[in-house]
């Protein structure tokens, strides 16, 4: 994953541990004070939320412990690799697109970040400026020309 992706996950983990977890513990405590737990909807909702928070914490901790962090700013070269920001042009519509190739959990198409496992990223890997890549899409095969490869 990229260093930015690692930072985002780490921030989420801190939020869950320092804000969300204490909040749900307080909600459970307050709901217990209302009496019979078997018919207490607030208690059951808080316990369900606690389970979700603890599951999220475990998931993020697992991802961070297994992460291989790559500092994209220290990479260079003409070939498209993980972390590269690639500018392409659709050969049919002449529409330009700019994408950074990131880890699967970092992907956000609206922000221009595509997963290394996506069809377009897989097609671009090891290609250079001027190369044309063909991508199978639900609407048929699309051809993109690589205009620029950047490392940010």
Task: Kindly summarize this structure in a few lines.
Belongs to the GreA/GreB family. The chain is α+β, with helices and mostly antiparallel strands.
Written description of the protein model:
The protein starts with a helix and ends with a strand. The chain has a 5-stranded mixed sheet with strand order 3-2-1-5-4. It is of the alpha+beta class and 152 residues long. The chain has 2 domains: 64 residues, Transcription elongation factor, GreA/GreB, N-terminal domain (Helix Hairpins, Orthogonal Bundle); 78 residues, Transcription elongation factor, GreA/GreB, C-terminal domain (Chitinase A, domain 3, Roll). It contains 3 helices and 5 strands. 41% of the residues lie in helices and 22% in strands. Helix 1 packs antiparallel against helix 2. This is Transcription elongation factor GreA. GO terms for molecular function: translation elongation factor activity.
Chart the SSEs and their pairings:
Layout: H1 3-32, H2 41-66, E1 85-90, E2 96-102, E3 113-115, H3 119-124, E4 132-137, E5 140-150
Parallel strand pairs: 2-3
Antiparallel strand pairs: 1-2, 1-5, 4-5
Helix pairs in contact: 1-2
């Amino acid at each position: 994953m990229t260093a930015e992706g690692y930072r985002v996950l780490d921030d989420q983990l801190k939020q869950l541990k320092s804000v969300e977890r204490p909040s749900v513990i307080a909600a459970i405590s307050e709901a217990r004070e209302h009496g019979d737990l078997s018919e207490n909807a607030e208690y059951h909702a808080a316990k369900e939320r606690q389970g979700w928070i603890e599951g999220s914490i475990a998931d993020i901790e697992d991802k961070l412990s297994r992460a291989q962090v790559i500092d994209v700013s220290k990479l260079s070269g003409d070939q498209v690799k993980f972390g590269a920001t690639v500018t392409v042009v659709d050969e049919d519509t002449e529409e330009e697109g700019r994408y950074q190739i990131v880890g699967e959990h970092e992907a956000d198409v609206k922000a221009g970040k595509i997963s290394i496992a996506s069809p377009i990223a897989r097609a671009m890997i090891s290609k250079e400026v001027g190369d044309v890549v063909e991508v199978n899409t639900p609407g048929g095969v699309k051809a993109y020309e690589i205009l620029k490869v950047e490392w940010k």
